[in-house]
Task: structure prediction
Amino acid sequence: MSNLLARDGPSTVQPPLSQTVGYIVVVLIGAIIALGMMLVTKVLKKTAGEDNKKTEMFMTANRTIRTGLTASAVISSWLWSTALLGSSFVGYDYGIAGPFWFAAGCSPMIVFFALLGISCKRKIPEAHTSLEVVRIRYGHVAHIVFMILCLVNNIFACANMLLGAAAVITAVTGMHIIAATFLLPVGVTVYTFVGGIKATFLTDYFHTAIIMIIACYFSVKAFSTPQIGSVGELFELLQAAATRHPVSGNQSGTYLTMTSKSAILFGILHTLGNFGLVIMDTSYFIKAFSASPAAVVPGYTIGGIAYFAIPWALGTVMSSVALGLENQPNFPTFPRRMTSTEVSNGLVLPYAAQTIAGKGGAAAVLLITFMACTSTLSAQVIAVSSILSFDVYREYFKKKATDRDLIRASHFGVIFFAAFSAGFSTMLHYVGINLGWTLYMLGVVTCPGIFPMIFTILWRRQSKAAAILSPILGLATGLSVWLGTASHFSGEVTVASTGQVLPCLYGTVASCMSPIIYSVVITLVKPQNYDWNDFKKVKLSLEKLDSNLTTAHLNKNGRVDGGEEEDAGRAGFDQKELKRWARIAAIWSVATFLGHWVIWPLPMYGSGYVFGKKFFIAWVVVAIIWLWLSMLVAIFYPIFDGGIQQMRDVYRGLRGQKVDGARGDASPSDGSISDATRTGEIQENKPGLND
Result:
């Protein structure tokens, strides 16, 4: 084929699907999922005693989530529409190095969070949010500072997801972008309003299963189309694409190399930005608090490693398809290349899917975009809801808040934030900001609190002044560097100049790293020597915690379910056991970072190696195998790890049979999702707050 036209001008691609299809997916399927989760919530209350009118159940699922469901929820938490769309567009821009660095910028952070999660379990087992940890240690000023940082993190994270998802839905169906932006959170609001964190876990599982199945389908379909036929043929197509339009900054201008200056700069930017998104996102802490102690470390570790394959494999395959076939008549933009705006809006994935699978491929992308966006939105909504209920309402308005008060505040938070995030995303759209801009600049606003938060949990010496001042100074430093470098490189400060890689990279590095210096220097003036046991002196949980750090309920006789003998015989999680899990988490954190960020990619970058045909085939095959294994983990692990047992109990309960919740045949230390909650009759505990 002849050379393609330049990447300029407006998009003239006609949506392959009708607006009706868009509304069916966004509205009807969203409503079906919401109604289904409302039914599941009602059934679990009737058969398993999981009462979402109880704050501990609504916000922490009684701290009993098993490893399998935790791992699935962790995978889902990072299956942003950004991950599916962004990994493909960086592959289109930078070559095979792009999707790899996208994946490497996520997995090490997820695994590292296992260390923070188990540390919180050990030091402050009754916590609901990370902000409670800050408040107890440093007081109200620090509490407000970190609350603002966390809310900013959640706001920009939601905007990032909604901008990308709405743009794809509009491109695929012709649905108005503002309608998509406002309708996407509706179903999320309904099922989160009713079911709380447990509904989030269950919908995470359902959404993740569908996304993984479709991603695996694309990994096979790409090589069954006559235009490609095999991985080897895709290699030839990529070589031809590099001849037509070589990549600036890549070794020999090829897409087939890890030696890509732009890609590694994006990798640094993306890694730091995601570090901020994890540490400063209270939804990750909520899921860690909701998991049983035995499930935190393996759940986050398995989930983080499994997640790696999704942006790597899907991004590699679909961006290569787009690059290889964009000079074919059935590519949506033919006879021109995709415009920069189309790429930044995340349209590489839907265009590639449409090329290899027609309208069915477009429909599949529409479905996974909807699933990814709503699944991660639910986590963000419940996170902000927890902040507004526990950290604002309970702390500053009604210290003696009851279950009913906190649930009401949580419901308000769910509705408020869903509406606010849609409105904020709409504002960004109208000032010309898209998925690419938010993807690059996120780290500037999410990173300042990373190390002060880590020091709060892991370093007893950090002082109160350091905790308060270092993130504020870090944010000011990052914003100054970001805007200053944008002006330096472009001569002006505009949306376009501030969305370039280098200004965002410098601003993110400044936001992330400068608080370390500020915190250490300020701490040296007057270091703290905090006693971790002080955390446990504050009553946070509205209900008693059992010996294994899960929520215990009282039966109608006023005793803990299972009786005193069973309670005394349970294998509680003592400090020695929790420290062992912390060591395991630290080892896995270091190993994952070294493997995904140092040992694997950096020698390939430094050597200037250009992939040969056999190496490229092996690269793609390993990525696809990893992707399929991740699908098996996400779908089947939760079923065998407690899912079958709970489904059996639900079936018995629906038939009117006795559920053996008191027999104690499953030690709660195994992370059982139902053992601590299956009760015949639950009596409300009176909250004993001592804040």
User: Anything to note?
Assistant: Residues 19-393+409-528+583-629 form a domain with the Sodium/glucose cotransporter fold (CATH 1.20.1730.10).
